[in-house]
Amino acid sequence: MKYWGKFQKNELRLQYILVVIFFGFIAYSVPLTGDDWTWATHIGIDRLNSGFENYNGRYVSNILEIIVTRVEWLRILIATIISTLLVFTTAKITEKKDRKVSVLLSFFLFIMIPTKIFSQTFGWTAGYVNYIPSIVLLLIYLLIVKNIMGEETPTYNKNLNYLVILLGLITPLIVEHVTLFALYTGFLVIVYTYFKHKKHYLVHWAYFISTIIGSIVMFTNGAYLRVLSGQDTYRSVKENTGILHRFYSTYKESMYQFLFSENVLVQLIISVLVILLLLRATTQKKRIENGLKILFLFVIVGFDLFILIFKGILGNEYLGIYTLDFEAIFSIIYFLTICISVLLFIQERTSKIKLIYYLSGIILLIIPFVFIAPFGPRCVFGTYTFMVLFILELLSYLETVYDWSYTSLKKVLFISNLLVMIALGFIIGMNGYADRMRIQKLENDLQQKAKVIEISELPYPQFHQMSSPRPGWYQATTFKILYKIPNDVEIKVVPYFQIES
Fold first, then answer.
1. DSSP for 85-132?
2. Phi, psi of 318 (to 5 degrees)
């Protein structure tokens, strides 16, 4: 009992220590893959020397990628700090009574992120520097202005003016969709604060003006004009069709899978929390309330059962060419049901406003990809983060409704986190070890002047983007440049376990 009391006293500190150790190990183990090989060569320096002219306006993340692909200890340090801040800020923004639960659940949801999203964010340095720091910087600003939601008049330290200017200038120079959302957030904070507190704050205006300046710097890069004119070989504006048609076709073909059908854990948690909300919520109009509750429960439970059970039983083409249409429309109805449930049945005004903002983030952080291609799993990271915020906020609200005790939940989450840390740590650790061994073998083969070099695939390549330099890929060429492999040397990628045997 004495030791358990000490553990409970230092529980939060222990959680953060585990988070730091885990993310540090992941950062150490994640190999350079795909575009990392390109940025680590003279090509990255050439782009820098040109001021990234006609490349993109992601000046901060481009420079960061050039640095971290060359300095390993700095890559590990930066990734560890940013990943830890991701967990800390999401928990801190949404906490009400017990931050320990918020930290445990936030950490659990991020380490349980779908593999496809992980492979292009946590598992890929080029994806990481674009899609995770941008969201973390946005979350830091949300943490700073969290006090506008309270009834008391907000107060700020004068030194925060300098910090938010820095945040406002840097955030827009990382990735485009977060740039647009930072503008939206900055404007929303000013408007909400004025209507609630009848005041303007220098901190809010400093951030908003800084994001405008940062956005102008980003979007005046010539690359975006090339995209609009169709001259860019990688990115493109989608065909000239109606906005609704473009949204629906993009959503049907790729977005809904990443948001729902391949994101089952988060979807189920949201469903359970909304069901608990519906079971306890009351309104003045009982007849309408009961009818809507039955309808909403039918939609939510039906969609969950479909994703969990019936989709697997029916296969991929159970409605022929209309299969994707059915699934996309069903998921849209499900999401609208979640939104309407929040609007109608959340009684506490502050929680309702925050939940509506998080729902808007889920939508607005993927909307730009309706117009710009390509769209991949990494593009969903911001939306996934706002799903996590939505879960944590709704859980905090339901805590007051149901008057829960989190003792059992904390134990379950702590044990679950340890198990996932061990499993994921083993997977990424094996990949990191295999990468170091294959680079060592490569260097030995080059010393032996071998004309054919076998490169082993990683044991679990699905956790990384472009994990091996396959012939025919552009990255295979930059892989050769990075490791000084002569052009006449052939590279063969072979299965990892074949090499081991």
1. HHHHHHHHHH-SS-HHHHHHHHHHHHHT--HHHHHTTTT-HHHHHHHS
2. -70, -20
3-class secondary-structure state, position 452: strand
Distance, in Å, from the CA atom of 128 to the CA atom of 369, rounded to the nearest integer, reads: 18
The tokens for 117 are 């999203």
Are 119 and 33 in contact by the 8 Å Cβ rule? The answer is no
Position 270, amino acid: I
Q: Which residue has the tokens 């710009």?
A: 372
Helix H or strand E segment including 164: helix 160-170
Q: Is 491 helix (H, G, I), strand (E, B) or coil?
A: strand
What confidence category does residue 500 fall into, taking pLDDT thresholds of 50, 70 and 90? very low
Find the helix packing angle between 11-29 and 2-9, rounded to 10°: 70
Share of the chain above pLDDT 90, in %: 68
- Least confident piece of the model among 35-49, 228-242, 335-349: 228-242
- Rounded to whole angstroms, how far apart are CA atoms 447 and 109? 46
Measure Cα distances from 476 to 68, 364, 405, 464, 466 in Å.
20, 35, 54, 16, 10
Mean of pLDDT values over 363-379: 84
- pLDDT band at residue 320, thresholds of 50, 70 and 90? confident
Q: Which residues pair with 491 in a beta bridge?
A: 453
Question: For residue 445, which phi and psi values (nearest 5 degrees)?
Answer: -65, -35
Grouping H, G, I as helix, E, B as strand and the rest as coil, residue 201 is coil
What letter represents residue 182's amino acid? A
What is the per-residue pLDDT across 74-133, written as a single tens digit (0 to 9) for each?
Answer: 999 999 999 999 999 999 998 776 678 899 999 999 999 999 999 999 999 999 999 999
Question: Number of helices (H) and strands (E), helices first, in the chain?
Answer: 25, 4
Which 3 state secondary structure label does DSSP give 453?
strand
Q: Is 283 helix (H, G, I), strand (E, B) or coil?
A: coil
Residue type (1 letter), 429: G
CA atoms of 236 and 224, how far apart (whole Å): 9
Contacts of 298 (CB under 8 A, 6+ apart): none
**Rounded distance, CA 114 to CA 259, Å?**
10
Query: Who wins on pLDDT, 496 or 499?
Result: 496
Could you report the per-residue pLDDT of 143-197, keeping only the tens digit for each? 999 999 988 888 999 899 999 999 999 999 999 999 999 999 999 999 999 999 9
Two tokens, residue 200: 């303007």
Torsion of CA 157, 163, 164, 170, to 10 degrees: -170
